[in-house]
Write a structure and sequence with these properties.
With 192 residues, the chain is mainly β. 7% of the residues lie in helices and 51% in strands. The N and C termini lie far apart (38 Å).
Length: 192
């Protein structure tokens, strides 16, 4: 039953392939390799000599912009991504979360959603667009009623993408986009 599946999820990352509602990845934070989370590909796009992340017992914190964090899963063309995030505005200053899907590791191109706080406002900007060579180009933009104060505490993000429709829930707000399917690929997380 769907509710039982939803209640049994682990906290941080969970991906499902919709055709069969099959879980492809759940981060348990129990596996490490060289002080980095196991089960992830790290695509370095930052000049920093360090991994630019902090790995704790129950979270992965993206400390600087640039690098992509890609769970080791098969390529998917549709699915659901769920995770919990939080933004430390004192440390981060300007901050945006980027979730790429249908990401091609060779061409470094994907569709993506960017979540960007609208500093000091009671709304957050959510954009859908193209990610190419680590540059995001927005194609559509929405403002949703989620204030910075909500984003300072752990909040849930859920992204469903199927064919030409993308639905996104951010905390208690939701929005949707008509999208241009681009085949299949990986999921990737990064920040600006």
């Amino acid at each position: 039953d769907y509710q039982t599946l939803q209640d049994s999820l682990l906290r941080f990352y969970h991906f499902e392939q919709e055709a069969v509602i099959k879980s492809l990845f759940s981060e348990t934070f129990g596996s490490k390799k060289d002080h980095l989370p196991g089960g992830w590909i790290i695509e370095k796009n930052s000049d920093l000599p360090i991994p630019s992340l902090e790995y704790t017992q129950d979270s992965i914190r993206l400390l600087s912009a640039g690098n992509k964090y890609i769970p080791v899963i098969p390529d998917i063309s549709s699915g659901r991504i769920r995770f919990t995030a939080g933004i430390n505005f004192t440390v981060a200053g300007h901050f945006a979360i980027l979730v790429s899907f249908r990401y091609d590791l060779k061409t470094r191109r994907s569709e993506a959603v960017r979540v960007q706080p609208n500093e000091g406002e009671k709304e957050t900007v959510v954009e859908y667009g193209d990610m190419k060579a680590n540059r995001f180009t927005p194609e559509q933009s929405r403002k949703i009623r989620v204030s910075d104060s909500v984003l300072e505490h752990p909040f849930k993000i859920e992204i469903d993408f199927h064919e030409e429709k993308l639905r996104m829930k951010l905390a208690d707000a939701a929005t949707s986009f008509r999208i241009q399917p681009s085949g299949s690929g990986k999921i990737a997380f990064s920040r600006e």
